[in-house]
Design brief:
It is built from 1 helix and 5 strands. With about 80 residues, the protein is mostly beta strands. The protein binds zinc ion.
Length: about 80
């Protein structure tokens, strides 16, 4: 009998902002503060063809980054629980 190591848990109990390194607590799969997770697979016409990139930002870093956009982010009312 192998000892249960907990390695097969699906939900992490914390996330880290890739930009500032801030720890974000996750309880029962829900981050306890605002975060955004970006995941994309670069396609053939990029120089990263076939690479999947994934990162998480805290709300503070997100706000800082989008404040540098020339064209503002589109914002509309929405909910995760439609
Ligand atoms: Zn951050």
């Amino acid at each position: 009998m192998g000892k249960y190591t907990g390695k097969d848990r699906i939900e992490p109990d914390c996330l880290y902002c890739n930009s500032c390194g801030k720890k974000i607590v996750v309880e029962q799969g829900v981050a306890k503060e605002g975060t955004i997770s970006i995941s994309c697979v670069w396609d053939y016409f990029s120089e990263k063809d076939g690479e999947r990139h994934h990162f998480t930002l805290c709300e503070e870093c997100y706000d800082r980054i989008i404040s540098q956009f020339v064209i503002p982010v589109e914002v509309e009312e929405g909910s995760l629980y439609i």
